[in-house]
DNA sequence: AAATTTACTTGCATTTTGCAAGTAATTAAT
DNA sequence: ATTAATTACTTGCAAAATGCAAGTAAATTT
């Protein structure tokens, strides 16, 4: 892994340097929905990430402490990935992105209900989401 | 411009398909801070985007109605870029990203004050920011 | 013991990025 | 009026990232 030079200390920039690509936030999203995922779980997602890209993104996210690896309780052949606190704290970002996209694009039917709840009391929705996720740490 | 195939209707995915890269949100950020920017203004930003990348990102953002071009009042040689309503609505995303990064990374001194204000009353801060920006439309 | 599953890695073609230089249309300076 | 700068890009090319298909090694299942 090469150390990419830091472009600036702007918080937007620092964030983009870590997860500013077309895949990383989908991995984070999967972990927010499912709490724990195996490598295979990520590959099953609708967007069909390539296995080498998945491996490289997981590595970057792990190196930056957004996710951690755990032993799978059932099998040594499996690995569980889960969000760290730092990863969980991206929940507000994920919520706002979702709400933005919902305003301008079609959203799958099954997502609409959650988004309604998020809108009704955004702060509470976010706080509760984070609290729930942190229970699993 | 090639039409990239849609990977899924997930709102996170739809968003990433448009601005999921290392530069687009920096352009959006600049426009949120400065309201209107010329091509040269973007090039002056600390992160030093390459001119061809800037041109291609501006085109994508314009094609997706996040920004618009305006005639510069002073000169036909200049072009003004500004956010559309759809672009302005990304403000909550920008705020949450900033707050996330502030928790885990160094932030330039001059940004700290505004981030404090954002934290103190996030909803009001966001609403006011959006309202102000929409005045310029 | 053999077949399957799981988490990756590898090789290679395609695409995107980044850098440096170039261009065309204004605008400013002489 | 002519020349020099500005401004907003474009172009060419090397380097890096992405995407696809196939391969591998350890564990698990049959």
Automatic annotation (TrEMBL), chains A, B:
Keywords: DNA-binding, Transcription, Transcription regulation. GO terms for molecular function: DNA binding. InterPro entries: HTH_HxlR (IPR002577), WH-like_DNA-bd_sf (IPR036388), WH_DNA-bd_sf (IPR036390). Pfam families: HxlR. Residues 10-109 form the HTH hxlR-type domain. The keyword DNA-binding applies. This is DNA-binding HxlR family transcriptional regulator.
